[in-house]
TrEMBL record:
Segment forming the signal sequence: none
Name of this protein: Antitoxin
Cited NCBIfam families: phd_fam (TIGR01552)
Family under the similarity heading: Belongs to the phD/YefM antitoxin family.
Length: 91
């Protein structure tokens, strides 16, 4: 399906909601909803939404980790394991 086919005016969404939802769930391709000729919203199936959300969270964690490394707040694996083992012995 081409990008052009996924662009729908809001009037189409209002009158064909069930059909559009079925199409989105079947093709797993999001629909862009326009209002007055301008893109205003994206409608996508829940599974794709959740996959995208998980991917973004992982990217955020990776970016935070890189920032910590650049900021000198990282420790090597051996030091981290030694710290954990010491804490476990004290517990």
């Amino acid at each position: 399906m081409s990008l052009k086919e996924t662009i729908k005016p809001i009037s189409y969404v209002k009158t064909h909601t069930a059909e559009l939802v079925h199409q989105i769930n079947h093709t797993r391709q999001a629909a862009i909803v326009t209002q007055n000729g301008e893109p205003r919203a994206v409608v996508q199936d829940i599974e794709t939404f959740e996959q995208t959300r998980r991917a973004l969270l992982l990217l955020k964690l990776a970016a935070q980790g890189e920032a910590e490394i650049r900021g000198g707040r990282a420790v090597d694996q051996a030091s981290a394991l030694a710290t954990i083992e010491a804490r476990l012995r004290r517990a």
